[in-house]
Amino acid sequence: MTQKNVCVVVTSRASYARIKSLLSAIQGHDSLRLQLVVAASALLHRYGSVVDVIESDGFKPNATVHVVIEGTSPETMAASTGLAIIQLSSKFQDLKPDVVLTIADRYETMATAIAASYMNIPLAHTQGGEVTGSIDDGVRNAVSRLAQLHLVSTDQSRSRLIQMGEDPTHVKLTGCPSIDLIANTSLDTDGLLDQYGGVGLEVDLTQPYLVVLQHPVTTEYEHAFDQIAATLEAIKGLKIPTIWFWPNVDAGSDEISKGLRRFREQTRPDYVHFYRNFTPEDFVRLIANCACLVGNSSAAIREGSFLGTPAVNIGTRQHGRERGDNVIDVQPKPPDIITAIKTQLAHGRYHRSSLYGDGKAGRRIADALAEPLPPIQKSLTY
Description:
By secondary structure, this protein is of the alpha/beta class. It has two domains: about 5-185 and about 360-370, Rossmann fold (3-Layer(aba) Sandwich), CATH 3.40.50.2000; about 200-345, Rossmann fold (3-Layer(aba) Sandwich). It is built from 14 helices and 14 strands. The protein has a seven-stranded parallel β-sheet with strand order 3-2-1-4-5-6-7. Strands 8-11-10-9-12-13-14 form a seven-stranded mixed β-sheet, with helices on one face. Strand 9 (about 210-215), helix 9 and strand 10 (about 240-245) form a beta-alpha-beta unit. The radius of gyration is 20 Å and the shape is globular.
């Protein structure tokens, strides 16, 4: 039986966590053959060398693509997108996939979609139809317009894509593969931190602790330093043991990194430990057991809702995203952040929400990819 070549492009620590269960499902599917391209920040040490995690999990990349141009500004994001189109086009020519799958709403997602579309390769897209802040909405919707097959996380997302004119038969409600990780991972924290270095206080995971993950907002990149300073001031005011992760590669990332380094060097806090990256499973274990997840990562909303983890979402980066009861939204102001964290600490765990899936998304997506693909020429309905 001829297998369909499915080329999945993984570009960051977040996109790997969002797609890992699908990679396994493709490998185990009789009708599919996995082609894996690892690119962008997933290849860089400063963002945790995600490619090493991918390989240790047993996934061998068919190709790697270096596309991140030095500097974290809107200009370098645009230039990196252009370089990614060039590099990915060459890899697609070599691999000759039957379908390309791209994830979510990053600039690399856009590059993947453009390269595949102009090469007449059917495009599948996960996490379409969602609403957030910054430029991500525009990128996500543009990729949805280019994609032939939509693999969405929520019922509301499916409705949005259909309202945009996408054929309902090509919009599949699968749930998010990141929830699969939770459903299939032991949440025990014994020895969790032993394999990671990082810098700062050794946090006792048997006691209440915070996790902070805050990225730049690309449409507010010039305020990134002030925004991270507000969060740092709040954490300084609370002095609760805290695990803090480095930001992603978007415009404004250097300013956030500068703020973290300055805080670390000038304050020398004995209540914070900084890390670059964890494996997806270990990150799930960490946030499953934390007292509160703070910042602006979608993990607080997606994985956090399924785990029932109390979360404080800061600023506009997740504006409009569907969420469960576990999230409190605040502006990047220290008193507001402190009050929200204290409220969540007093509340404790929330009931589990299946808003973003039930733990079976990977298999559903693999089955959808195994079906006959929609035609390249789309017929939008209005």
